[in-house]
Design brief:
Blueprint (H helix, E strand, L loop, with lengths): L7 H10 L5 H17 L5 H5 L4 H12 L6 H13 L9 E9 L2 E10 L2 E11 H4 L3 H31 L1
Antiparallel strand pairs: 1-2, 2-3
């Protein structure tokens, strides 16, 4: 990082999100999240430029990205569950689904509309070639997964409330 402060709040968030992660993984994730926030891009080369030795930073990032314990699907589920913990437990909540396109990459975002704001809870990226003729099927698959996570979160919150009432 170009600044001397360590991203401790980001580390705390990642530690809460991934309690099973090794401290080196947490530190690496926090470092690159802070770099992405600083550079405002997910392009791998840009965050690596904030790390001093760019070659070592790219190797470190590559190891992190290809780490089998950091499965993208599992991480997406963890982020969704973390987001759902912040949703009010009473009142109306609407669900929105939206596509974003960048070059040949498509990003499907599922958001909860709470009041006047939208809170993304689940994202799934894919290539344009994968979607050809299958966009509707892909949307249904992503929605099923998002609903499963929403229902799991609701069920676990209900169980926790009943347990605290006893």
């Amino acid at each position: 990082m170009t600044t001397e402060t360590r991203p401790t709040r980001i580390e705390d968030y990642i530690r809460d999100l991934l309690p099973w992660a090794h401290p080196h993984q947490i530190k690496a994730l926090a470092t690159f999240v802070a770099a992405i926030l600083e550079k405002q891009t997910g392009n791998q080369a840009e965050p690596a430029r904030t790390q001093g030795n760019q070659e070592l930073a790219l190797k470190r990032l590559s190891r992190l990205i290809h780490n089998e314990r950091l499965n993208p699907g599992y991480l997406a589920d963890c982020l969704c569950q973390q987001s759902l913990q912040q949703v009010p437990r009473t009142g109306k909540v609407h669900l929105a689904i939206d596509w974003a396109i960048e070059d040949t990459r498509h990003l499907l975002v599922v958001s909860l509309i709470v009041g006047r704001g939208a809170m993304p809870i689940f994202r799934q990226a894919c290539n344009q070639s994968v979607l050809k003729g299958r966009m509707r099927m892909y949307e249904q698959s992503v929605l099923k997964r998002a609903f499963r996570l929403i229902f799991q979160s609701t069920a676990s919150a209900s169980t926790a409330r009943r347990a605290s009432a006893i």
